[in-house]
Amino acid sequence: MEISVEIPLWNRGEDRADDNGSSVERGKDWRIDIQREKRWNGGQTKRFIYACKQIGKEEFIDTGFYLRFKDQNSQQRLNENKMIIPFRATQEEKKAYQEMLKEELEEGIVIPIQQDQVKWWNHTFLIKKLNGTWRNNLDASKLNKEIEKLHFKMHELEEIPYLANQMDYATSLDLKSAFYHIAVSPNSIPYLTFNFNNNNYAYKAMPFGTKHSTFYFAEVIESILRQIRIHLEIKVLNYCDDILLIHQDKQKLKTQSMKIMKTLKQFELTMSTDKCVTEPKQIITFLGWIWNLKEMNIRMSEERKLKMIQALKDQCNTIYKSKNVKIRQLAALIDRLNFLRTYIKEASLYLIELYKAKTQALKTGSQDGIMLINKELIKELN
């Protein structure tokens, strides 16, 4: 079968991710029937598998996402400490979560699981985004304590000025539900369980939240983009599921952008078409920032800036007035500061201290745990 990808075939030898003797169980010793040929979202097609062969990732994709435990006693410790964590939220949040769960069940992202099959329950909660919609989150912080740490480098926003030249053009691509494009290995599914309305569900597609999620997704995307960089004369910067394409020739960039979209679709990576910018521009919004390649500067839209500052003040006030603060409240504050640090250099100074406080607190609790923080620092933020 011929694929219309514009990048030629190549072969790269890759070591298996579990060559170091991971403690992942091998046998299908639990009773959820999962056919490897019929994974979520309609299954991994021949076209998809053939495309993965081209980047040396057939085995990586076939194995799927799996948890590499810290030591041989990790699973035993999890088994001894597992307990049902009920979903606690307002009626508005419960209704929103119910709708998202229904959609994920229909798409095969999550599946029902019997209680005797569960090996670990994770906390799950909602966060309201700036646009008023909700994002569901799997709090795998306690599970993460038993998972081996993997190192990788994420691209930074600060790389754009070094990657682009004045008067370059840019387009941007946004992958839809990107983390869910990788299937979970059957033996890891029972550890990715959560409880909602007294029913148990588990992730069959890789969720965001585990220590390994970002690494696995970055590995797949980087393998694809690495070959695009080699075979197409185009500059590529990606941050998880957001991709920025840069070239000095406007027409060539437009043509290459369409080819890259076509290539990504062969890996069953779908686009958020309403968020993609395929018409080359010299002023483009990427990761919430307005990049001006004519003048080589960056800014935030005034509307977004005001919303961010107000949200930041509200978070700071909530934390400052509270005697006890949930770790996830601090984590949300850190996320906003991390977003702002490209625009407000002082944000990096506050981040260092807040990261220290969060890391220390997570040593003894989960994201939903209670902690005390340096209120003088929060007062400074106000």
TrEMBL record:
Database matches in InterPro entries: DNA/RNA_pol_sf, Hepadnavirus_pol/RT, Rev_trsase/Diguanyl_cyclase, RT_dom
Pfam families per record: RVT_1
Domain of life: Eukaryota
SUPFAM superfamilies documented for this protein: DNA/RNA polymerases
Ranges of residues in domain Reverse transcriptase: 107-291
Record's protein name: Putative Transposon Ty3-G Gag-Pol polyprotein
Source species of the chain: Streblomastix strix
